[in-house]
Write a structure and sequence with these properties.
By secondary structure, this protein is of the alpha+beta class. 18% of the residues lie in helices and 39% in strands. It starts with a strand and ends in a 7-residue tail after the last strand.
Amino acid sequence: MTRVLMHSVVWQYLPDSTQQRIAAAMLAAGARATPERPLGWVMMEPNRDLHRHEVRVRGWPGDTPMQLVALTHAHGAWVEALEPPYETRPYVMRAY
């Protein structure tokens, strides 16, 4: 069983301090993840600079950074999966 933190269109409403606490908690939990107890982080959040919604994922154990895997309609009417290699970004995402 994989434990997953999933959120959509919430990150932008959280203060930086809260974003940092969540990211730190996920990194700490990820450091404890094992093949028998994996952990995932899935987020669907707007990128206001590019005027699109993005789906990013991160999984543990491992050291692969957060990856952009899809673009999506704000309410899920469509999802466009992206092909690897995926774009990566730091774990602490700033509000757009």
